[in-house]
Amino acid sequence: MLSTDYDENRVRNTKTRWIAYSMTPHKSLRKAVVLGIDGLDPGLCREMMAKGRLPHLRRLAATGLFTPLHTANPAQSPVAWTCLATGANPGRHGVYDFIVRDPGSYLPRLSLTRPGAAGPLGPPAPAYDATTFFDVAVRAGLPVAAVRWPVTYPPAFPGAKVLSGLGAPDVKGRLGNYVRYEEEAPGASGGRGKVEAVRFADGRAVLAVEGPIALVAGKRAPAVCRLALTRRHGLLEYACEEAAGSIAPDGWSSYLRLRFACGDGRVVTGVTRLFLQRLEPLSLYCGPIQVDPESPNLPVAAPAGYAAELARALGGPYSTLGMPEETKGLTDGAVTDEAFLSFCNDVTREREAMLAYELERFKEGLLAVVFDTSDRIQHCFWRFHDPSHPLYDADAAKRLGPVIEDHMARMDAAVGAALDAAGDDTALFVCSDHGFCSYTRSVNVNAWLAQAGYLKLKPHDPADAGELFKHVDWSATRAFALGFGSIYLNIAGREPQGIVADGGEARELGAEIAARLLALDDAGTSAVAAVHDKASLYDGPRLAHAPDLVLGLRPPYRVAWTSAIGGPGGEVFTDNRQKWSGDHCVDAAFVPGALFSNLPLDAPAEGVAQTRLAATVCTALGLAPAPEMEAALPRK
User: Fold this and answer.
1) 332-342 burial by CB neighbour count: b if 16+ within 10 A, else e?
2) How confident is the model at residue 28, as a pLDDT?
3) Which regions in the chain score pLDDT beneath 50?
């Protein structure tokens, strides 16, 4: 773990290097380090720098650069990190939302990858094919390593070392879900994971843990790994072919490797961790089965062997899932706050170790490492940061209220480690995709579209939320919403059953919907800050794939989970009573990210667009940016 203690000598020595560099401001550098800190909010940075809790970022601000980084609209991680890497707006790279529509249907799909040439059942393709700063550096012959940069699955930067970030799947090729094993009658889960019954006989039970799909005797079914459980001396002992160990109540196991026979002699191994909530009667949480970095069955890293190389450096397995932090288990009540925080600390330790490993051997080129647990902690602990949140608990806030600031202090220590390793031939950039705000009220956009007459529903059970648009009458529907801010018009010739004429009719309908949304009132409070037409936000060859309108909500409102996947049921406004209590899926003007650098760059105090980072990194290395990248920040 990196120390968060303030080291005056280290900061003083680093400051001397910055001063030396500032006397030769136009020199091309041999090395560039980009540290991504997901959700690093400029307002929180100012508060914590004033308290002295971010000494390394404070020195960067004093001698180099600190400026708000205007995030992409919508302010969502896949969109923003892609903008940062490509230096281009979504109209050029094509990533518009976490959830987008399948062009051949109205069904939602995740934007983190695209269907590959073999179709939806085959391997996926990268989400975008725009040029990134990784590509520019590789083509110039420089070494490049990108560790956990989001939206990099499958890796598509030939010549670069890549460990995929957000979007990397579990061993089944999915985004990962948990299973709870319950000794008492479990009933329905009420959450996103599965709940399975477990029975002990003579103190012993055997679980059939499901892995990837196997083909046996011509039939497809999940492969299973048998995991034996024994209660002994107040512990739960577990054993399988590849692993054995024990767990105390309220504790996590170490990583255990599970072996799945998938037919035709093919064996797949995966890794997971167990959380023992209760020993008797048993309540055991099994996290998603992740790709084994030492023997990956899916290409979570490139070149072949890089994931295993990192495992050797770390001394064993690590999380490979794009979003490994157990947010689903926490929000469903299957994992406690303390257990979630413990897991987050472990994931952060892994990332710190990866950064240390790469910094130690970094001699030239481009190194990018993203820390994104900071995002998950803010999503799940904002309820203790905001006393007005429906789930605020004063007693719990005394214990857990500081966790956001404590984690950001830990991120400052990671910045310090990079500064220790950097010389006067190194450009350091610290960036974030967006900031953060409270999320206390949900807006079901599809429910509003239905009530306003734009989305037509067939007769159905009112208690059915109708997700995936299953009750929609497309022959009479003029608009629908998907994702966390995207609204599409049902345009004839573009949508499968479109009825709105492209051109003037579509423009008039879009303007009408925008005007009515801007007037949307929640008991005297305006929920909508802006409604953007796609042409006002984006330009480029992929503009046709953009949503027609982008909804900019005003904090603390956010699009409801049900609406995001095509569910028009329920009320338009509801309280958010989930532990997922902080967010950034609001109008981008409210949640800028942050940019720090040791370079004295010329940037206005009000901030710069995040699409200017890629070219700035390229020019620091003396490389010509790609033509589609927006202009670099000039040096002072």
Assistant:
1) bebbebebbbb
2) 79
3) 1-25
Q: Which residues contact 117 (CB under 8 A, 6 or more apart)?
A: 125
Roughly how many angstroms between the first and final C-alpha of the chain, as a whole number? Answer: 36
The amino acid sitting at 104 is G
Using CB atoms within 10 A of its CB, is residue 23 exposed (0-12), middle (13-18) or buried (19+)?
exposed
Which one-letter DSSP state was computed for residue 193?
S
Handedness of CA 502, 503, 504, 507 (dihedral sign): positive
Q: Do residues 12 and 6 lie in contact, with contact meaning Cβ atoms separated by under 8 Å?
A: no
CA distance 415 to 7: 13
Rounded Cα gap, residues 343 and 146, in angstroms? 23
Phi, psi (degrees; rounded to nearest 5) at 169: -90, 175
Q: Residue 130, CB half-sphere, CA atoms under 13 Å: how many? A: 31
Return the axis-axis angle of helices 403-421 and 42-50, rounded to nearest 10°: 80
As a residue count, the chain comes to 636
Query: Which pLDDT does position 253 carry in this prediction?
Result: 97
> Using alpha carbons only, what angle is made at residue 161 by residues 156 and 164, rounded to the nearest 5 degrees?
60
Binning the chain into helix, strand and coil, the percentages to the nearest 5 are: 30, 25, 45
pLDDT, position 265: 85
| Helical spans, DSSP H, in 52-115 | 55-63, 77-86, 90-93
In this structure, what token pair is assigned to residue 23? 């006397």
- Locate 126 and state its tokens: 């990268």
Amino acid identity for residue 539 in this structure = D
Q: What is the reported pLDDT for 187?
A: 61
Question: Helix H segments across 315-336?
Answer: 327-331
CB 289, CB 255: distance < 8 Å: no
Q: For 89-144, write each residue's pLDDT tens digit.
A: 999 999 999 999 987 899 999 999 998 866 666 789 999 999 999 999 999 999 99
Element (H, E) at 326: none
Residue 186's pLDDT is what? 64
Task: Give the contacts of 381 (CB within 8 A, at least 6 positions apart).
Answer: 337, 341, 400, 401, 403, 404, 581, 582
Burial label for 120, CB within 10 Å (0-12, 13-18, 19+), is exposed
Strand partners, 226: 208
Which segments of 273-319 are extended strands (E)?
A: 274-278, 283-286, 290-291, 301-302
What pLDDT score does 123 carry?
A: 81
Distance CA(348)–CA(407), nearest Å, equals 9
Task: Say how far apart CA 189 and CA 333 lie, in whole Å.
Answer: 10
Which of 301, 578, 616 minimizes the C-alpha distance to 431? 616
The pLDDT of residue 389 is 95
589: nearest Cα among 482, 372, 437, 373: 437
Q: Please give the pLDDT value at position 12.
A: 36
The token pair that represents 287 in the structure block: 């996290």
Token readout for 506 is: 């579509």
d(CA 474, CA 487) in angstroms, rounded, equals 15
Q: Are 495 and 106 in contact (CB under 8 A)?
A: yes
Strand intervals (E) in 265-323: 267-272, 274-278, 283-286, 290-291, 301-302
Provide the residue type at 56 as one letter: H
Longest dimension (CA), the chain: 76
